[in-house]
Amino acid sequence: MERTCSRAMYRTHNALSTLNHVLKCYPKEDSINGRVFRVLGNLCQHKKGWADIIISRKPQIITHLLKVLSRASKNTELKENHSEGTILMTLIILKYLTNKEQLLKTFPVLNTIGSLFIKSSQEWQESQTNETVLNALITIIYQFSVLKNYSMVTKLKSTTNGNALKELVNVLLLCPISIIKIIMNFITISKLNSDLPVLDICNKFIDAVVKNMDTEGFKTECLDYIKCLCYLLDHPANKTAQQCGKTISILIQALEKLNKPTDLELECCVLLVNTLNKCQYAEYLVQEQLQCNILDVVIKKLEWVVDNTVIMNTHDFNIVLKWKLTFDYAELYPEGSFSVKRKLCSCCLEILDLRNFDCPMSHGTPASKRLGYPSEDDEDNDDDVDDIDYDDDEDEDSGQNPVSTDKKLAYFTVVTKDDRCLSPCSSTGSDYAALSWASPCSSPRSLGN
């Protein structure tokens, strides 16, 4: 609808009052309700001011809209009195009503939305119907979750048809990314562990990943499930046995089985190693990683990236890494992104170093010395490091700790200074520091915004 037409409908023809009167005269006529809601939805979509006008001057329209959704949630069949199109038009209005804080204060929106969501979810599980309505409901719940108000959690837990938050688990695989965004928004405001079904969601993803492991290769949707598990595990509240369950074990198994040199799987490997590395301050998770042979898995992954046949036949591991991680490596192994492979190497070395692990292929040489890192016992002896020209001037005031992670990664990276592989947790202005869903090293706390 054009802006001039929208303006004329309100100022010249007073269409809002007319439409409201039509709804009063025909409250249960499905075709009339659907067409009126479609007009109102178009108005709200093309001019945001209409949303505020409807809420402030014609709240009866919102009340009537919620009654339609409430009747749909109570019927034996969702389409008994209202067609799917009418319900979708009703949800479109809610989607484009921008002042959602006012809606929460004045109208029982979430109670009605939650009840209809449970009803639609049950019908979808039984007959795979109403998928479009279900996706629209999930989108609206996500839009409200951005407000991060604890009252929303309470209302969704106590709807007429039950707990809408627990029902998210049953439709998790239908729309995993949106549901994870909802959970990550609510987890910052939840007051009880029982508020959100984090463990059930983890178990659902784990079952899906395990089922996919039995087939040849990882499907794209399975890689999305792995990413969602990583995002859940990143939040401190989920780093407990009660919340994450067997997530660590599954992530390590997935890391071991991701062995195709494609950009998608390499980026997933980077995210997995980075996520496991962030668990270093949770003692329980570190112990579980060690029980699952994380060190052997990471070593094999490192050998796979930089070609283990060359590594095992040389005593100078540092020179091998320097040669393999130059841009000549991209020509030798054109499959997969060179920058992603280099990033994976950095993450693997970081997790090994934080575990104080000495690689068996080092021939008895400590990891820090083998890779050319400065050590506390031999700060003045730079013979091993001087053999290789890193083309980077060392900053004398760059840090007090000579064996810090950032320092070691600087020694490990042997390409130009601008292409240096930084730590995934670094706060510098690199491309990897910009956290988003599209980035393989993004943080889940950025998903909801």
From TrEMBL:
Region (Disordered): 368-405, 423-449
Top-level taxon of origin: Eukaryota
Acidic residues bias: start-end ranges: 375-398
Any single GO BP term: anatomical structure morphogenesis
Entry GO terms, CC: cytosol
Compositional bias segments (type: Polar residues): 439-449
Residues annotated as signal peptide: none
Alphabetical list of InterPro entries matching this protein: ARM-type_fold
Protein name (Swiss-Prot/TrEMBL): Uncharacterized protein
Organism: Psylliodes chrysocephalus
Lineage, uppermost ranks: Eukaryota, Metazoa, Ecdysozoa, Arthropoda, Hexapoda
